Inverse folding.
């Protein structure tokens, strides 16, 4: 299995940027597809972005398309979510997840491993 630890969250003003990291340990990170999800208070966990195991395919939620960029560095066993032009509605706990099929998937129940999350707060 793989263990995931998110970092990089924090408080930022609207229009600002943050880069989240997801450090993986355990089995070879490059065998897993990776996704980022978020959960705002009172809402269900929602897909934000996903990337296939070698980075060739990516997918974004419509709400973040053009503002967020997902990437990964398999040599460093780390995934990233670059978040630009942040809006107050981006405020949430952000989670990274890994799917052992290596294929880019969207539904949260397709993912096998999860980090504990990192808080992102965007002030207006």
């Amino acid at each position: 299995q793989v263990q995931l630890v998110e970092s990089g969250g924090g408080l930022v003003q609207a229009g600002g940027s943050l880069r989240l990291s997801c450090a993986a340990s355990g089995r070879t990170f490059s065998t897993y597809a990776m996704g980022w999800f978020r959960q705002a208070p009172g809402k269900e966990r929602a897909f934000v972005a996903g990337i296939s195991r070698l980075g060739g395919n990516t997918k974004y939620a419509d709400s973040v398309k053009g503002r967020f960029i997902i990437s990964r560095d398999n040599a460093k066993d780390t995934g990233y979510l670059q978040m630009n032009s942040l809006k107050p509605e981006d405020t949430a706990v952000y989670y990274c997840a890994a799917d052992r099929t290596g294929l880019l998937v969207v539904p949260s129940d397709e993912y096998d491993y999860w980090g504990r999350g990192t808080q992102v707060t965007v002030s207006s």
Remarks:
- The chain has a mean pLDDT of 96.
